[in-house]
Amino acid sequence: MEIKGKVLEKFGVETGTNANGKDWKKQNILIETIETYPKKVYISFMGDKIDELSNVYPGATVAVSVNVESREFNGKWYTDIKGWKLKMETAE
User: Fold this and answer.
1) Contact at 8 Å (CB) between 43 and 64?
2) What is the mean pLDDT of residues 58-74?
3) How confident is the model at residue 4 (pLDDT cuts 50, 70, 90)?
4) Residue 83: beta bridge partners?
5) CA–CA gap between residue 12 and residue 78 (Å, rounded)
6) Residue 84: which region, alpha, beta or left (left: phi > 0; alpha: psi -120 to 50)?
7) What pTM was estimated for this model as a whole?
8) How far apart are CA 80 and CA 66, in angstroms?
9) 8 Å CB contact between 6 and 64
10) DSSP structure class, residue 56
């Protein structure tokens, strides 16, 4: 799935260690879709995929290839939108 939009914010890199002792890192961006009724979408990039964000800045128009996945935890459902490819469209 691909989502196109304008970058509203690029967040800092987060790091940690999971229960199995493996280190992880992630970085998030917030984009606003370009359509009649724009929507804000919060997208996470994990591991070496955060390199895709190196040239991204607020105001840039991007096309992001994402995977959308939901999971259940303690009777509640959570949805993650994970980016795996980013293409700069235009800059403002």
Assistant:
1) yes
2) 96
3) very high
4) 66
5) 22
6) alpha
7) 0.88
8) 10
9) no
10) -
